[in-house]
Structure formats: structure tokens, C-alpha cells
Amino acid sequence: MNKTTSIATIFILVMAVFPFLVDSAWLSIGITFLVFATVAFSQDIILGRAGVFNMGHAIFFGIGAYTTAILNVQFGLEIIATIPFAIIFPVIIAIFLAGPIIHLRGDYLLVATIGFNIIFEQVLSNDLFGLTGGPNGIFGIDVVRIFGYELWTDTSIYYIAFGLLIITLLIIRNLDNSRYGRALYYINKDEIAAKSMGINVPYYKLFAFALGAAIAGAAGSIFAIQYSAVSPESFSFMQSVMFFAIVLVGGSASLPGVIIGTFVMFVLPELFTEFKESRYLIFGAAMVLTMVLRPNGVWPATFGNIPKYLKEKALKHKALKDNSKGETE
Amino acid sequence: MDIFLQQLINGLTIGSLYALVALGYTMVYGVMKLINFAHGDLVAFSAYVGLTIFTQFFGASAVSFVDVIIIFLFTSIIVAFVGVLLERLAYRPLRTAPRLSAVVSALGAALVIQNGIMLIWGPNMQIFPADLLPSTIWNISGVIITFTQVCILALSAVLMIALYFFINKTKIGTAIRATAIDQDAAKLMGINVNRIIMIIFVVGSMLGAIGGLFIGLYYRSLTFDMGWVYGLSAFIAAIIGGIGSIPGAMIGGLLLGLFNALIAGYISTEWAETLTFVLLIIILIVRPTGILGEKTAEKV
Q1: d(Cα A294, Cα A254) in Å, to the nearest integer?
Q2: Which of A118, A244, A296 is the closest to B273 by Cβ?
Q3: Which of B35, B105, B271 comes nearest A287 by C-beta?
Q4: Lowest CB count within 10 Å: A36, A293, A300, B293, which one?
Q5: What is the ipTM metric for this complex?
Q6: In the CATH hierarchy, which top-level class contains the domain B2-286?
Q7: Which 8-state DSSP code applies to residue B224?
Q8: What is the pLDDT of residues A145-186, one digit of tens each?
């Protein structure tokens, strides 16, 4: 068992028994943590693995939440039936939005995604087509019903969120060990080299976008269920900045890194409610300080997805080289 | 026709404000290849500093021409100081770090300044006193021009011409351009790159400070998070003109100002922001280097 797997196992075990150890206030913090951790992992696929500077991730989270809310409240669909739509819509939008801009260089892409996020915010609060409910959003979202059971307790919502997080972690594990994951890793490390080796760069980047959007959409759906309401400010540009910062402050493409990032950004503020006023000031200072002291994040990834035999070969090669250098001197 | 002329005047005024702020973004990007996200908040900070100096030391009442100059000067010096501090603490340690680390640091610094403003001046909206400049209004056959607008247009024009000469005709300006092209080569030629970057932050912050004061004078209402709004608009202006290009920022600012005013005059104010960002995305797709930006080949 390697290090990442053991950390993941401990994390999952702790989160699995968490609802039995705490009171209801903590339980809802736990749900928030799980939902935001899922979104952060999906952002990590785009930003940390594919290396695409995406600062509009709240869009996909928001589309997922609004899809569930609109289909349930306006069209009377069961919550469970809305979830597939909450996954598919963000994917369609992600491909539609990212397609034309995917070829842009880092900073330009960053600015374009900021632009999309602000347009998204305005569309929501200006009540386009009379569906989004304007600045107040939509409330009165139904409870989840499966096979006649009503899952309205926080504990059941917690386990839905927990299930999604585990599915996300499995997807990421499989991604890392697949052809797609290696292609993304290569593109992230050196795009020009990847292109010249015949990797279809825009295709893989769009794939990362679509996968990230799908997961964020599902998380958005759970967010809507938890609060039984959605409103535009939960999916603002500021929220995207937070998702962006979580991944980079924690450590991109690193499982413990993203968990630490989510914890610092969303759970710590709940602990220090007396600092609520200066909360963002402390965040900002912490972001600067972390980057100055640890530019690659608090817990940077040590890449395990280079096949072992290649690593050994590289080490052997290096040893040989060092030996021959010693002889000539 | 009257509406068109009126919106033209308004557009040029807003455009000059955007241009003044956009210059700060473009100069930093030109040399450091970094989006200085904190610049917009420095602009907001300057409006608040100006407000405090005016109300605390001048009693918020009509003052002489010299006093106005003193207010502008002191505000821009304070803001320039904060700008240099920002570079020292948040950007200089990250000059060789991965690009994204500097972006996160810039976002963090923006949060610090924005919420610093909130903690110092409070979260409620503040009104900038109107008495700093005379409230003379000219009515030229139905087109209304205020004294503030004339001041904004005139001073922005003077500042931009001055900046153009500073960059193109002086020795320091040459050093700035050299640093923007190739930092390592500039270092080898005996240019003190740290000092050049400091100068850029001083000049950019001072221009932004004057922009911030004008924003206070023109729009009158100040909120602690207004830096995002004006900063993003100015940043779009810098991209439209071609980020990294100083004349580009000026042209981009004016064009964006006109675009905004014409939309507000003819289409709707509700969707003005959306249409601005749609314009940004179209420009990014069609011509990402902007109007005056040069197409540079990616170094391998």
C-alpha cells in the first residue's frame, strides 16, 4: 500500500464514521466540506492535472445546482431524476464554452473563464427566460425520494455527498492510471513536447473540462438538496477564485493537498466565527504567505503515475552517468 | 443626435478612467507577465484615502486649486507606497516560482487590500463629497458637460502624453522597455531589474490612484469591493488594446468607455456588464493579442 492509498483509506474511514461522533451543526459543516471537497477535486482535474487555468469553475457547480432546482420546482421532476441532467448539462455547457477558447495561452484562458463566470452571474440574477428566479434564486426544493423512502435527514444527505466524493476519488484514481491521465500529465508538464509526440492537446484538455464539469454538476445538485434553495451569490466569481485557490494552496494534483485546501478555506472559518469580519483578510494573507513559503502548495504531489520500471531505469541511468563522470575525472 | 453626443462625452470620460487604471495592469504584465489582480483594489483604496484626506484635513468643503493638487499628490504617494510594498511582499519572492503561484499570491493580496478597506472604513457605502471640484455645468445645445468631466479628460490626456514621453524618450523608459523584452539580457546590460520593477509599481499605482480619485469624483459612491468591478473593466480595456502595450491600454480604455456608454444609452444598463464580457471573449477568440499587441512566437 503506497502513501496516497493509505492517506485516502484513513480519510475515508474517518469521514464514514463522522456523523456518529458529532452534533447537527457539525454535521452540516461536514456536508459542506464533502460537497466543496468534491468540487475542489473536479477543479483539480482541470487545473491541477490538465494544467488549464480555469477560474470559472463555479459555473459548472452552479449549473448543476440550478438544473436540479429548476427541474424540480418548475417542472416537478423527482430529485433523483434531475441528477442525470445536473451531470449532462454542465458537460454540454463546458464543451460549448471551453471549445472556442481551449487553444488560448494560460493567462488569456484565465481571463476568458472569468468573463464566462461574470456573464453566468448576470444571467442568473437578471432572471433569463424567467427560470432562474432572479437575485433571490429558487427555493422550496423537494426532499430526495428513493423507492418510497424520504431521505430528509442531514445524515442521509451526508452519505449521499460522501458517496459522490468516493466515486470522484475512484474516477481520479482510474484517470491517473489511464492513457488519458498520462496524456494530461504530459500536457501539463510540457505542452509543446506533448503536441509533437502526437497527443491531441485540445481534445484532452476538453476532456478534462467535461469530466470536471460533470463532477462539479453532481456536487451542485447535492448542494441544492442540502439547502433546498439556490441563489446566484453561491456561484459568483469569488467562489471560483476560492476553488482556484484551494487547489493551488493545497497542492495541485495532490489528494491530501486538495483536502487540506478545502479544510482551510471552508471549515476553518466555521471554527473561528468570532473572526468572521476579518475572515477574508486572513485568507488573503494566508494565500500570499503560503505561496511565498511553499510555491507548489502546502502538500505538493509527488507523481506516482510514472510507471515504476521507467523510474528505475532513469535512476540506473543516472547512477551510470555519475560513475562514468567519476572515472574520467 | 443629442443622445449620441452626450454618450460620446460620457464614454470618453469613463474611457479615460479605464485607461488610467489599465496602464497599471499593462505595465506590470509587460514586464513581469503577471496579472496584478490587486491593482483594482489599490484603485478603490486610493478613492478611500482621498476621501479621508479631504474630509479630515480640509473639512470636506470647497478648497483652493493648490489644495486639490495636494490631495491628489498625497493620495498618489500613499497608494504608490502600498503598491511598492505589495510588490516587495507578495510578488518579488515569487518571481522565479511557477506562474500560478504568483496568480494566487496576487489574488490573496487583492483580498487583503479589499477587506482591509472594509475593516478600516466599514462595509457600508460611502459618499465622496462633491465639493472637491467646482460643480460648474455647461450646456452646449442640449449636451451637458460637467467641470469634473473636463478635468478628467484634460488631466488624463496630460498624464498619458507624459507617460508616453517617459517611456519612449527617457533613459529609465528605455530601461523599462528593455526589461519588458528580455529580463535576463537587461540584467546583463547593467539594468537593475528590481529597481525597474519598483518604478513600474510606483508609476502604475500613481496613475491608478488618480484614476481612483476620479472614480470617486465621477461616480460619487464608494464600496469596499468596487475594486473588482473597475479593475476587471480596466483589465478588459488592457486586453482589448493588447496587454503589455502602453498605447494599447490608452486606446483600449477609450474604446471600452465608448462601448459601455453607447450600450447604456441605446440598449440597456441591465445587460451592460454582460455585453462587455461578451466583447472581451469575442476579442480573445478572434484576436487574443488585442489591437496593438504583437504576435510573439512561444519560446521553446
Answers
A1: 14
A2: A118
A3: B105
A4: A293
A5: 0.88
A6: mainly alpha
A7: T
A8: 777 777 778 888 899 999 999 999 999 989 988 999 889 988
Predicted local confidence at residue A306, as pLDDT = 57
Contacts of A291 in chain B (CB under 8 A): 94, 97, 101-102, 104-105, 108
Q: Where are the domains of chain A?
A: 3-328
Q: What is the dihedral sign for C-alpha B105, B108, B110, B112?
A: negative
Other C-beta atoms lying within 10 Å of the C-beta of residue B190: 7
pLDDT at B201: 95
- Closest Cα in chain A, distance from residue B133 (Å): 34
- Condensed to tens digits (0 to 9), the pLDDT of residues B250-263 reads 999 999 999 988 88
Q: Do B111 and A287 touch (CB under 8 A)?
A: yes
Residue from the list A107, A244, A284 with its beta carbon closest to the beta carbon of B115: A284
Query: How many angstroms from the chain centroid is the CA of residue A5?
Result: 19
Residues of chain A scoring pLDDT < 50: 328-329
SS3 call for A151: strand
The verdict on A171 touching B (C-beta cutoff 8 Å) is no
With contacts defined as CB-CB under 8 Å, which chain A residues touch B99?
106
Task: Look up cell 429558487; give the residue.
Answer: A138
The per-residue pLDDT for range A252-285, each reduced to its tens digit, is 888 888 988 898 887 777 777 677 777 788 888 8
How many alpha carbons lie under 13 Å from residue A155 in its C-beta half-sphere? 8
Q: What is the pLDDT of residues B152-181, one digit of tens each?
A: 999 999 999 999 999 999 999 999 999 988
**Interface size, chain A vs chain B, as Cβ–Cβ contacts under 8 Å:** 122
Distance (Å) from the alpha carbon of B112 to chain A's nearest alpha carbon: 5
Q: Give the residue from A152, A151, A127, A150 showing the smallest Cα distance to A138.
A: A127
- Which of chain B's residues have a Cβ under 8 Å away from the Cβ of A284? 107-115
This prediction has a pTM of 0.88
Structural fold of domain A3-328: ABC transporter involved in vitamin B12 uptake, BtuC (1.10.3470)
* Domain spans, chain B: 2-286
